[in-house]
Amino acid sequence: MNKQRYIMVIDEGTTSARAIVFNHQGNIVSMSQKSIKQYFPHPGWVEQDPVEIWKDVESALIEALIKKNIEPYQIQSLGIANQRETAVVWNKDTGKPICKAIVWQSKQTSKISDQIKEAGYSKMIHHKTGLIIDSYFSATKLKWILDHVPNAREDAEAGKLLFGTVDTWLLWNLTGGKVFATDYSNASRTMMFNIHTLKWDPQILRLLKIPSQMLPKVYPSDHLYGHTGDYTFEGLKIPITGIMGDQQASLFGQLALSPGMVKNTYGTGAFIMMNTGEKPILSDNGLITTIAYGFDGKVNYALEGSIFVAGSAIQWLKDGMRIINDPGESEVMAREAPNHCGVYVVPAFSGLGAPYWNQQTRGAVFGLTRGTTREEFVKATLNSLAYQTKDVLRTMQKDTHIDLKNLNVDGGATKNDYLMQFQADLLGIPIHRAVVSEVTALGIAYLSGLASGYWKDLDEVKRCGEKRDEFKPKMSVKERNHYYLGWLNAVKAAQVFKGIKY
Ligand SMILES: Nc1ncnc2c1ncn2[C@@H]1O[C@H](COP(=O)(O)OP(=O)(O)O)[C@@H](O)[C@H]1O
Ligand SMILES: O=P(O)(O)OC[C@H](O)CO
Predict the structure, then answer these.
(1) Where is ADP bound in this sequence (predicted)?
(2) What phi-psi label fits residue 353: left (phi over 0), alpha (psi between -120 and 50 degrees) or beta?
């Protein structure tokens, strides 16, 4: 009998759900991935079907085991990392969602956010939650559901409905409806959670008219949340010992666990996080303060710059513009374009996130000439990921006065060597790319495995993840500043443009 034991994780991202099995060396033993269907019912709205999400996760879990003949009893514990902020509301008795999930990218609650801002609550909300009022966070999405779905408010007040981010929804399903909980990192993305008291904030709940009984219990990230139920894994009770939002999980996977350490994950969006230790630092310059994780009896905070469109801009080149056939082709084309062609793409498809926080801005292209080619367009789109990253890192430096020595990176778009080199050139510091491609999954595996005793301590974990590729800056300071100035002008101009309302 094969007695080897593993850690299994769910990485439920915006575009795909993955189930991954890790061994003691932190290597991937088996993996299964399912695409998550996206719904765009109106311009700017993004929805997903919670039942589809659960079914995709469930089949990925089963497939990952079957692929390598792994028996459920070989799984020491399970961890969940998830796309954050996305709001799910379901009926407690039937377990059925009352509507589609409103995805973090969706702009359908911009008006509600503007109203809260105009009513003068920005400071209070920033101080309590660390966040900037924006439709990105779950609170306005939940309010929208309660205000628009027939009978939702009455049912919520009667205690019939439950709200959760995707982790909570998956945990509920994995445990056969027995456990209704979330972790600090996910709760801190809802704009309803007080990051100082570590409780749902009654003043914010009153303001948004959200019944507190529909909110999950909140625990540290390395808590024993429960066990898989009778439904999944043929009655085998696998302990679920870790939950973190995916960006926090990648911070953990990068082992950026000391104050001042920074990572950037280039997935659908790009999310830059600096670990600030046990002290929350409030930004004066448009970054958000968030809980990195509750681990080993302590709570760690982080400063975050959230970029809404990163890899999805490359997806847009493929699906929307049809200029490339697959994301990998963007690298080939960028290398064929001249050095710098003066074209700037500002991919503000769903407004601008950090540090601008402008919900109304939409995408723009500048610097076109009669001679502009497809290659230049693709290159400018890729460059926008690097420019947006620089915007955030400059702001982090302003807020913390910490000079970065290098940047740890991961996520789908970091496969692109052209982009990595341009990022190093633009920042003037080396880029360290994780060799393990699934850093988010690895981070939640570490956390879950530490909680279940699979790894003894952090030192043991640190031995797993030290290999990185390095990209050193080569560009002159003059050139770097010249290109970046062009970007700053482009972002400014994009924000001035007032299009038609739809
Ligand atoms: N070679 C590449 N160059 C640029 N972008 C890429 C490349 N390969 C993948 N991507 C982008 O990476 C994203 C997927 O990354 P991933 O980390 O899986 O995202 P998520 O977790 O948000 O679903 C896609 O948006 C895709 O366009
Ligand atoms: O799906 P990802 O990996 O791009 O992550 C989405 C973020 O969690 C949104 O805040």
Answers:
(1) 14, 18, 268, 311, 412, 416
(2) beta
CA 288 to centroid of ligand 2, rounded, Å: 15
Average pLDDT over residues 97-118: 94
Determine if ligand 1 sits within 6 Å of the CB of residue 333. no
Specify burial of residue 45 (Cβ count, 10 A radius: 0-12, 13-18, 19+). middle
Position 322 pLDDT exceeds 80: yes
CATH architecture label of 6-246: 2-Layer Sandwich (3.30)
Q: Is 14 in the pocket of ligand 2 (CB under 6 A)?
A: yes
101: CA distance to ligand 1 center in Å? 22
Phi then psi for residue 76, to 5 deg, are -70, -40
Of the listed ligands, the closest to the CA of 105 is 2
**How confident is the model at residue 231, as a pLDDT?**
60
* 222-258 per-position pLDDT tens digit: 999 999 976 666 667 899 999 999 999 999 999 999 9
Q: Which atom of ligand 1 is nearest to the CA of 410?
A: 17
Question: What integer pLDDT is reported at residue 336 of this predicted model?
Answer: 92
Q: Average pLDDT, stretch 434-462?
A: 92
Contacts of 222 (CB under 8 A, 6+ apart): 241, 242, 293, 294, 295, 296, 447, 448, 450, 451
397 is in an annotated binding site: no
Is residue 88 within 6 Å of ligand 1 at its C-beta? no
Q: What is the structure's pLDDT at 340?
A: 74
Q: Residue 475's pLDDT is what?
A: 93
Mutate to test the pocket of ligand 1, among 250, 266, 321, 437 (most ligand atoms within 8 A of CB): 266
Long-range contacts formed by 119-122: CB under 8 A, 24+ apart: 121/207
Check pocket membership of 159 for ligand 1, CB cut-off 6 A. Answer: no
- Give Cα separations from 189 to 17, 291, 486 (angstroms): 20, 8, 33
Domain ranges of the chain: 6-246
Measured from the CA of 104, which atom of ligand 2 is nearest? Answer: 9
State the distance from the centre of ligand 2 to the C-alpha of 165, rounded, in angstroms. Answer: 12
pLDDT of res. 463: 81
Segment 66-74 shows an average pLDDT of 91
pLDDT at 274: 94
